[in-house]
Amino acid sequence: MRKILWTFIMAFALIFAINAQELANFMGASSAASPEINASNDSVTFRIPGNYATVVKLSGSWLRGTANPQPELQKGEGGIWSITLPLPEPEIYTYSFIVDGVSVNDAANIFVQRDGTRYLSVLLVPGERSENYSVANQRGNLERVWYDSPTIGINRAMMVYTPYGYRDRANSKKTYPVLYLLHGGGGDEEAWVSMGRACEILDNLIEKGMAEPMLCVMPNGNAGQQAARIHQIPERPFDRSDPAQANLYIHSLANDIIPYIESNYRVIARKSGRAVAGLSMGGGHTTAVTGNYPNLFDYICPLSSGMAESDEAKAQLQGIKKAGYKLYWIGVGDEDTRAYERSKELAGMLDSFDMEYTLYVTGGGHTWANWRNYLDTFATLLFK
Amino acid sequence: MRKILWTFIMAFALIFAINAQELANFMGASSAASPEINASNDSVTFRIPGNYATVVKLSGSWLRGTANPQPELQKGEGGIWSITLPLPEPEIYTYSFIVDGVSVNDAANIFVQRDGTRYLSVLLVPGERSENYSVANQRGNLERVWYDSPTIGINRAMMVYTPYGYRDRANSKKTYPVLYLLHGGGGDEEAWVSMGRACEILDNLIEKGMAEPMLCVMPNGNAGQQAARIHQIPERPFDRSDPAQANLYIHSLANDIIPYIESNYRVIARKSGRAVAGLSMGGGHTTAVTGNYPNLFDYICPLSSGMAESDEAKAQLQGIKKAGYKLYWIGVGDEDTRAYERSKELAGMLDSFDMEYTLYVTGGGHTWANWRNYLDTFATLLFK
Predict the structure, then answer these.
(1) Distance, in angstroms, between A316 CA and closest chain B CA?
(2) What's the pLDDT at B360?
(3) Which of A132, A255, A267, B235 suits a disulfide with A204, CB 3.0-4.6 Å?
(4) Cα–Cα dist B340/B332, whole Å
(5) Inter-chain touch A50–B140, beta carbons under 8 Å
């Protein structure tokens, strides 16, 4: 990652004939910078001005469960509070300050992710693990698309990523495969964009030739919502425990979303050109839509979810076997107790039917660190 | 606005057969809600939990310059600080809490705007003035597009709005006019989307039949940037006082951006199908691009900017007169001292050449309240 970044920066420096000092200036080095990964690359400093605050702590996602989960900052010159901590492993983390008991985002940090209704400051620690989470040199477009969902009875939003080159004149006859990428509970159509870094991951993998150029469609999986709550559109109550309601979304995926995409984008409108993946609730949507529509997808990736053993589940998996598929990829963290058990149950059922699959077990639990990693991994296996 | 909103909510209630209590629940009424416009519709309450805070104030954009610009909240039950203030005039405002001297966004409020590198909590007071700033029933798509700019020598981002219906099969042969909408200093390609509510304004005007369905292209006017800083792409130094650099962007608009849009979207690729408008620095870009390329745009709207009298300015305006145009619309606030003077200078030059124009003078200064209002006004005059 650093090598690519430096190559990129140096290319800039050459193109625009600027020197190292100018580079340092426009990279934003300043005494009030926060967060600042220090030159030694083994520590990170957080800073917040607060002349009248009494106690300022840092709450970081990587500190949870440690001996000192909310370390105190020290007040220094000019009323700037600061703390320097060991740099955590390469990954994306979120954090906030706690100023006299109130959670505060880092006003010096423009990198923010939205998790449902909360906005969180982000620390990206560069390294091999996170190298595909930063912006690539070749970037695909991202569109918020409003489409009618006759199945659900409302107009709804989804995000559609088109890969770099999609609009090149040279590719004007080319059709592309599509990954349908589904969020979990509490998420919305922007969850994979914001927390999941899906555009950056796909851009980087495609640029490196590690993934096929593909579209990525990220719908809203909450059938009671037209769109993410940022749009402030009234919602209808939705009862996931009511089977008729619970399945509305997966029917809309098959009958509203896929037809919309296939009539509006240059895509491969057949099973071999469709993949579906989803995390947690979206993993349930993945097993449900493939179980109910076994002829739609050749690539099936339920993440941090699995499937409880049942007669219905078995019948659905046999239907998938009969229809044929190219990849069944199950990702789960071994600390994600229930999902881990359910993933093993799903694997057991696949075993019993002699169906090929990958059970990709990582450390960790029900986290975006895992979901980004799963996308970064299974996306390289699609459409090949 | 309230009438439309209630019609919309009631339509929901009918469609989904839900009652008033359920409606109240899903509208999110709760004791910790913030901001809450009270039932009497003449006051608004802000709340923030903070058991250990000593002094909590509210800083609101509508309170600047008043006798008490940062009123103190009172601590109540459960450590919830609150304050109830008279409801300001219908408009969009931004605010933050100041907790023991530190500025804090409202964690209970998902409505956030980004102004450059700062994220701000938003209060939208509904009313006639702001009725087009909320989400419409018929919504256009919004795409982040990465395009090559040979003129500037980098790959760059712009936002492209396509109106509701653009993808309807019934409109598949229809071509649309395009508004090129330019931001000011400190802004980027998302400024009109976030602070300017451009999508909502155009959606609402088009839905009401008050504006022609049009595309809206919002490029990044900082020639040193590839994109908004949220993408964390290194920048090159840029000197606006160097004329060769200062004009790069307007040449890229004419030679890179317009050709890209006209070869990738179904648009009217002639002068009568192009409008350009911009605020402050973007107003300068508007007068510069129309002065340098008098055959490109029939609709010209410099906002909060104007043009200093000079031989070059006069020659450019005469060029525009010779080429012909349909609308020259100058918007400015009478408290925006310098821009007001410059707008009158521009109007004076137009007068001297017997060129038709509108000088739309409002109260207020160099503010997004004015720029939203100008867009809401001049957009109804375009392409007619």
Answers:
(1) 31
(2) 98
(3) A132
(4) 6
(5) no
CB atoms within 10 A of CB B367: 18
Instruction: Tokens for B129, please give them.
Output: 């003035």
The mean pLDDT values, 10 residues at a time, for chain A of 384 residues are 39 36 36 88 96 96 96 96 98 97 95 95 97 98 98 96 96 97 97 98 98 98 96 88 86 98 98 98 98 98 98 98 98 98 98 98 97 98 97
Q: Please tell me the predicted confidence (pLDDT) of residue B6.
A: 38
Give the torsion sign (CA, B376, B378, B383, B384).
positive
Alpha-carbon gap, residue A378 to A373, rounded angstroms: 9
pLDDT at A1: 36
CA triplet A110, A116, A120: central angle to 5 degrees? 30
Residue A59, SS3 per DSSP:
strand
Half-sphere CA count of B70, side-chain side, radius 13 A: 12
- One-letter amino acid at A286 equals T
**Tokens of residue A103, six digits:** 């959670």
- Residue found under tokens 């509305």: A248
Q: What's the pTM?
A: 0.92
User: Is residue A306 packed enough to be buried (19+ CB in 10 Å), middle (13-18) or exposed (0-12)?
Assistant: buried
Please give the residue of chain B at the shortest CA–CA distance from A157.
Answer: B141
Rounded distance between C-alpha atoms, residue A78 and residue A75, angstroms: 9
Q: What angle do CA B168, B172, B178 make, to 5 degrees?
A: 90
**How far apart are alpha carbons B218 and B239 in whole angstroms?**
22
Retrieve residue B186's tokens. Answer: 């400190």
